[in-house]
Amino acid sequence: MTGTLRQVGIVDVTMGTGVTITEPANLYGCVLGDDVFVGPFVEIQKQVSIGARTRVQSHSFICEFVTIGTDCFVGHGVMFINDTFASGGPARGDRSKWRSTSIGDGVSIGSNATIMPVSICSGVVIGAGAVVTRDIKEPGIYAGNPARKLRALT
Predict the structure, then answer these.
(1) What are phi and psi of 96, to 5 degrees?
(2) Tens digit of each residue's pLDDT (9 = 90 or more) over 61-105
(3) Distance separating alpha carbons of residues 76 and 83, to the nearest angstrom
(4) Mean of pLDDT values over 112-135
(5) CA distance 45 to 120
(6) Of the four, 24, 92, 116, 147, which is 20 to 30 A from 84 by CA?
(7) Contacts of 97 (CB under 8 A, 6+ apart)
(8) In this predicted structure, what is the pLDDT of residue 120?
C-alpha cells in the first residue's frame, strides 16, 4: 500500500479546566476554553479558538480561522467553511485565499447548518439546516438558505 495514513488524534491542543472531549475526535492546534464540550466524530483544526462553556456536538467540522465565543452551542453536523472558491475552485491549501469566521457569545447553531466565512454577533440563533452567507449584525433568529432574520429574540 502506498499513500499517507493520518491517525485520528488530539495534538497541540490548549485546554482550559474541565474540558470534555469524546473520542473519536480529531483536534489539532486549537484552543478550548474552560468547560468546553466536544462530542464524537468532531474535527477542530488549527488556529481555531472556542470560548468557555461552549458545546460542540457530534459530526461537526470547524476549519482553520474560526473563532467561537463563550456559552455557544454548535449542533450536530454543523460545517464551517473557510474557502469560498473565489477563484472558481478550491484554494488547494493556499491560506491567502481563505477567509475567517467570528462567532459572538451566546450563539446557538442548529444541526446541519453551514457557516460560510462571516461574522455573527452575540445573541443569535441559527436554525437547523440554515446556510449563513452574510454577516449577522443584529441578535435574533435566522433560518433558511440563505439565512434570513425571522424575528427578534424575546
Answers:
(1) -65, -20
(2) 999 999 999 999 999 999 999 999 988 899 898 888 899 999 999
(3) 21
(4) 98
(5) 20
(6) 24
(7) 83, 84, 86, 87, 91
(8) 98
∠ CA 125-121-130, rounded to 5°: 40
86 φ/ψ sector (left φ>0, alpha ψ -120 to 50, else beta): alpha
Question: For residue 2, how many other CB atoms are within 10 A of its CB?
Answer: 3
Between residues 86 and 143, which one has the greater pLDDT? 143
Count of CB atoms within 10 A of residue 44's CB?
29
Compute the C-alpha angle 114/118/122, nearest 5°. Answer: 95
Which residue type is seen at 66? Answer: V
Rg (CA), the chain: 15
Residue owning grid cell 488556529: 47
Under DSSP, the state recorded for 69 is -
